[in-house]
Amino acid sequence: MSNEYLNKTEEQQFEDAKNWFKENGTPILVAIILASAASFGWNFWKNHQLQTAQQTSATYQSVMETYLQDPSKNQPLVEKFIVDNKDSSYATFAEFETAKQAVEKGDFVAAKTALQSAVKSSDPTLQTIARFRLAQIDYQLKAYDEALATLAQIQDPSWQVRKQVLSGDILVAKGDIDAAKSAYESAKANAQLQEQMLIDVRLNNL
Known about the structure:
Layout: H1 3-6, H2 10-69, H3 71-84, H4 89-104, H5 108-118, H6 124-140, H7 144-152, H8 160-174, H9 177-190, H10 193-204
């Protein structure tokens, strides 16, 4: 701060401050308003997102309770929920439940349709689960190449053992024993002790 400013009277300093604010006050006021609006907007958006998630969760619970009382009769209710909430993880959960119920009825084609939709989830974890289950369904449908192609898209390291074991099962079904053995051995190298025992059973049965 300069000596010239320190030597001014309080009145002069006040006049300087008024003049400075007159020249610069409006931009500052606008900046404050914009900052406040941005903060308000962010908080409003967060609260809106939270309320939406809570409402969707509650609706999901209600729909699932009704659906499971009579899956065949209440399937349209689940389908409507999925359409209405297509961008949420709850829609994927509903698709998983639809696939599960179809599998229990032995309707693997319907299960495949539900899982093909679930694979489109924006959540990477849900995508991985959907792909693995879809590969299991294709295995049941004897669509072996499709199943292997789907498994190849799973990159999450935590799924590698399950992926390799299922790949081995599919390759056995295809009659490619050497490739199946390689898949099982790769799985065993990274598996826990209990998993290794189950893999050994598969290897011994080749």
